[in-house]
Amino acid sequence: MAVTELWLARHGESIGNVAASRAEAEGLDVIPLDVRDADVPLSSTGREQALALGEWLDEHREELDAYWVSPYARARETLAIALGADGPGTAEVVVDERIRDRELGVLDLLTRRGVERRHPDEMARRRHLGKFYHRPPGGESWADVALRLRSFLRDALNGPEERALLVAHDAVVMLVLYVLLPMGEEELLDFATDHTVLNASVTHLIRVDDGWQLAAFSDVAHLRREGADVTAHPGSPDVEPR
Q: Which of the residues 46, 95, 168, 186 has an alpha carbon 20 to 30 A from that of 69?
């Protein structure tokens, strides 16, 4: 067998999302956060969103054969809250470092203003190379993330499971679409400019005869139904969207 349906959930709002949005709004150079990226937990809003995701999960639990989750705390916490005391049932939860968030290297914890002021040469290089291929020193480009996702998807999608939920990050959701639909660089960047992966949203992919089809993108009906806040916090502030 192989996976025929795949749901992609972004983690709930994290304290890092909140700190980054506040720092951007206040014109700061540096995001005031003293935890490493892998350990950033959910905010109180993020925990409410994860509970609402659990209501969505209750409707689909019997369909799911596997749960794949990023090793980062905000993703694991989202899935744990959503699963609740009943746990994953007979399905297996697999933590895989290949679906972790994109690493920003020297640009980590910098706002757009901070990048402009502290790394003007890097900003110029980013504008020249574009979002997809620009790799900050010590970090990853979108192409780098796509490469590790290809490795993960080759293993995961050809296993014994038929339906799976992946809980990870906005860049991971976007780049899974890039790999599976598939998209080219320009098509991906156009799509990412017009679409945001909302916190605790669910994106749905279905395998068809000639590949994969996008059935739903960044659906947050479960959040609205449960009265949880809908938050965007678009991804890494690496200068510009394209």
A: 186
68 lies in which domain range? Answer: 5-226
Smallest CA-to-CA distance from 175 within 151, 158, 159, 199 is with 151
Which residues on neighbouring strands pair with residue 208, listed in sequence order?
211
Residue 7: CB atoms within 10 A of its CB come to 22
Global pTM value: 0.95
Q: What is the pLDDT of residue 201?
A: 98
Q: Is residue 165 part of a domain?
A: yes
Q: Please tell me the distance from the alpha carbon of residue 215 to that of residue 8, in angstroms, as a whole number.
A: 11
- What pLDDT, on the 0 to 100 scale, is given for residue 91? 82
Q: How far apart are CA 148 and CA 86, in angstroms?
A: 32
Closest CA to 56 of 8, 14, 94: 8
Question: Which residue is associated with the tokens 């992966």?
Answer: 197
Average pLDDT across each block of 10 residues of the chain; the chain has 242 residues. List them in order: 94 97 96 97 98 96 94 98 86 95 97 96 95 97 98 95 96 98 97 96 96 98 98 67 50
Q: First CA to last CA across the chain, in angstroms?
A: 38
Contact 13, 46 (CB under 8 A): yes
Cα 67 to Cα 147: distance, rounded to the nearest angstrom: 21
CATH number for the domain spanning 15: value is: 3.40.50.1240
Q: Which H or E run includes 81?
A: helix 73-83
